[in-house]
Amino acid sequence: MRCPMCGEGSDRVIDSREAPDGDVVRRRRVCEPCGHRFTTYERIETTPLIVVKKDGRRETFRREKLLEGVFKALHRRPVPAGTVHEFARQLEVRLGEGGEREVPSSTLGDRVMEFLRSSDAVAYVRFASVYREFRDIDELLAEVRGLATAPPVVAKDPP
User: Fold this and answer.
1) Coil/strand/helix, residue 134
2) Residue 132: how many CA atoms within 13 Å on its side-chain side?
3) What pTM value is reported for the model?
4) Is the pLDDT of residue 136 over 80?
């Protein structure tokens, strides 16, 4: 492992801990030449999950991209970041367990919609307005009315 300060490759591990979800090992290291301390994370390398877009393009699933979209919808909303990260982690695990190497982007969008609907109605409408590509205000209003008249969604097992 190269030191981020001096670039040397001589370091030693001074502490290792498993992350709470068990997916990652956190290692504290110290660079032998310069003494700089830094943290690395180790996770199992898996075959990447491929997301198939509406237009047929394929791209590698990136948890960061999923989180970015969810956090945009949740901007200034009272949903804890830990809840969002746990949703993303469990979604990724479930998708990987399915054995499929390719997943349609609509599957991801639907799962995010379910999560947001059960977490925060405003964030749900924000996300839906982009995801469903409403053509006019009437379509948006119909979605909001449907949300207002629907029975409350009870959070179920994650995706």
Assistant:
1) coil
2) 19
3) 0.61
4) no
